[in-house]
Amino acid sequence: MRNLSLGAVLALVFVASCSDETTVYRDQLEDDVAVEENATTLDNSISFDDAGVLDIFDEQRLSGKSSKADEQAGDYPLTLVAQISAPSYTGATNLGATHIDIDGDYAYVSYNTVEDGYAGGLDIINVSDPNNPRLTGRLYYTNADMNAIAYDDGYIYAVGGFDSEKSTRSEFNSLVAKIAVSGGRFNLGAGITYGFQEGFNATDVKVSGDRVLVTSGGDGLLRAYNKSDLTILDDVPYADLRSVALNNDKIAILDASTGVKIMNADFGVTQEINISSDFGNFAKRTLDYTDDMIVVSEGSKGAGVYDANSGSLLKYLPILINPEGVAEQNIVTNAVASNEGVILMANGGAGLCLSEDQGTDPDLVGIIELSGSINYVASKGDYIFAASGKSGVQVIKLNRPSTSLVEECSSSPTYSGSSSLTVNSGQDLAYRGSKRFNSITNSGELLLCGSWTVRNAVDINSNALMEMNGTLVVGRNNRRRDVTVDEGATLRIEGNLIIYGDLILNDGATIEFLGGTSSANIFGQVVRNGNTTVTGTFDDVRNKF
Prior knowledge:
Blueprint: E1 2-4, E2 10-15, E3 24-28, E4 33-35, H1 39-44, E5 46-47, E6 52-53, E7 56-57, H2 59-62, E8 79-84, E9 95-103, E10 106-113, E11 120-126, E12 134-141, E13 144-152, E14 155-162, E15 174-182, E16 185-187, E17 192-197, E18 201-208, E19 211-217, E20 220-226, E21 232-238, E22 241-247, E23 250-255, E24 259-263, E25 269-274, E26 287-290, E27 293-297, E28 303-307, E29 313-317, E30 335-339, E31 342-346, E32 352-356, E33 363-368, E34 376-380, E35 383-387, E36 393-397, H3 403-408, E37 420-423, E38 428-437, E39 439-442, E40 445-454, E41 458-460, E42 465-475, E43 483-485, E44 490-500, E45 503-505, E46 510-513, E47 518-522, E48 526-528, E49 533-535, E50 538-540
């Protein structure tokens, strides 16, 4: 590791603030910041042990009112791509993920300690290859908690708290750090720019145009810094700020003492939403815009959905489960996120809940099959990133079908039926869509266009034909399931085939890959029993053919 300093600072540039309460420095760090340079450590932080198909448990299944026998195929064919373990170093072996920001092919993660004292870290995860996410950058803070993070135009803006008694530069505990990044790696050669402000801990950060907005809790501030050098532009005091969200020119803040305030760019309040929920002391709570609604994480109440224009409560999204062995104070909605029709709730020990955004009446879908306590969630594009406290970050793929794929198969009906899909001999079926199956048994002809996951086995029986245009994911790495192609049967793939198990080709079986961009990602083995045929150009991700 390359070590650099936060406490004993060599001030290269001192910038006097426009307030006598806050100072801003550009420092060359020496002792309290370390960059992980061991490539093996970074690589070993990625785990595929639990990767594969994720189930979603709806209210009926959680209550025991439905059974597998009559279960319908579910929407949202999610897959767990990988897990990234939290940073760990001498004196800080209990760090937990606190916040995630997503930009392009990278996710940026912050960590703090769940114990007394200050310790934290920052990660950069490259997800440009959905089959093989990589941890490309890791930075340790030995005297600072990192509570939130934002990326903008080549820089990370990370906020948190540090022990001001160990610093001669600031009497305030809340900080914001501006760190250059390039190609998924930290660039400390240019130094780190810091700002300090009132408040027990800086809680959230967003970049808006040429301004960096930072909230701090415990008699803190909403403060706007100049993005280029972190000089102070404007601020306003609040009792207990937890989060800030942006919607074009509107700014929404969550004050745990009163509720939500919506303001303009000049920090003038235009709307107030009074909320009486108990937001807890020093707990992570967030809010997020979805169209003209604001979704607020409200602890034990779940998530409140409010009309951003009128301020009226539209609906509460409750916490669906009360797991045995989990302390009551850990069954709370810590964070919320929205992404193109999906609302996600990080419910601590009660897991990650998914709802459909249906205008003013969101509809609960269920609890995603994940391990660990979910403290924060972020989603953008085709990915969900769930922060699982000291278990690190779980990378989930939504597997949304592409528009072109849907158009190509537009003549096929959308699938609606059993989660156990059976095609009998002589049947010729074709479907488009995006569903979760328990199993597929094909003895006839089947065309699937879209994105599909299968928890259990896929059996293509003798002389059957199965064609797939899109994405098909089968099994899970900790619960492997196979795809079997029997004698005289053909599996035709145009897109991505992912199997957490074996691909078994029996004597006389054929697998064909169409086009020039198809891929096969087989976590088990390709078993070829007798005379089998493999044709076409494709990416053999794990070199199993």
